[in-house]
Design goal:
The chain is mostly helical. It contains eleven helices and no strands.
Length: 268
């Protein structure tokens, strides 16, 4: 691990301030974050109908030839509150770069230069991996999952009553946003492991030795957070296993880079 230089120590010393000054700075960053969220919420709420229509595309594709190719609302306020949830969810996603920037500006002065250089790339990778997980949900997992689950809704057979899918507006939004959050967060695995490897808490050898246990845990997570069909579970299981292997590679590269720097420091 890199040791701070005298310049780094001087820079950290210059950022020291009374507790009240830090609280004022924290309040400032929180206000900017809240303002960003409120503005982004207003924008997303204004376009909530279009955003919701985009989120329903996987369901619309499956039900396009069905007589029940629409969603239902069972309460007078259900659609309004559903659009409000769309605005809040979209506003949080849209405002995340600003919120992350405010968080960075609050904590960065208290970090050494090499710590800032190490942490910043992972902060930038977080929204990319979250967006990748969300795209995987909408374009890969959900079309197949909805098709598989809808296959259980059959017309009446053997004189019995049929089952027709009538998805509710609010229930569908809860379903899709839960999956987006679950996939977006689980796709952060390389960032988490790489950060732990960067600070020396976790090593590539440890990840390799725990591979079998990790795969069992990944399988359990995939079974819990995905819809109850095999394809949905596999659609999360496979990328998570791949991300785990990528994490091992990233930590190994970090360790190799650290070894080279330590060797160069000893040589001088």
């Amino acid at each position: 691990m890199n040791k701070p230089t005298e310049d780094d120590e001087a820079a950290i010393e210059a950022t020291k301030a009374p507790l009240m000054d830090h609280l004022i700075e924290l309040r400032k960053r929180l206000i900017w974050s809240i303002v960003a969220f409120v503005i982004c919420f207003g924008i997303c709420f204004y376009f909530a109908r279009e955003i919701y229509a985009f989120l329903t595309l996987p369901l619309a594709h499956v039900l396009k030839d069905s007589p029940n190719n629409h969603l239902i609302a069972t309460g007078l306020t259900e659609t309004f509150f559903t659009y409000a949830k769309v605005g809040a969810f979209g506003g949080l996603c849209l405002a995340f770069p600003v919120i992350a920037a405010q968080l960075w500006m609050f904590i960065a002065p208290g970090l050494y230069r090499h710590e800032r250089n190490a942490f910043l790339p992972f902060l930038l990778a977080t929204p990319f991996l979250f967006a990748l997980g969300a795209a995987f949900v909408l374009y890969v997992m959900m079309p197949f999952a909805i098709t598989a689950l809808n296959a259980f809704n059959k017309p009446g057979e053997f004189g019995g009553l049929g089952i027709q899918l009538l998805p509710r507006v609010s229930e569908y939004l809860d379903f899709v946003t839960t999956l987006i959050l679950a996939f977006g967060l689980t796709f952060q695995m390389p960032v988490l492991f790489a950060l732990l490897g960067r600070v020396g808490i976790l090593g590539a050898a440890q990840l390799r030795s725990a591979r079998r246990f990790a795969w069992v845990g990944i399988t359990a997570v995939a079974a819990i957070i995905t819809p109850p069909d095999v394809f949905s579970m596999i659609s999360l299981l496979v990328p998570l296993v791949a991300l785990y292997e990528i994490s091992i590679l990233l930590v190994a590269l970090i360790e190799r880079d650290r070894s080279k720097k330590d060797a160069a420091a000893r040589a001088t």
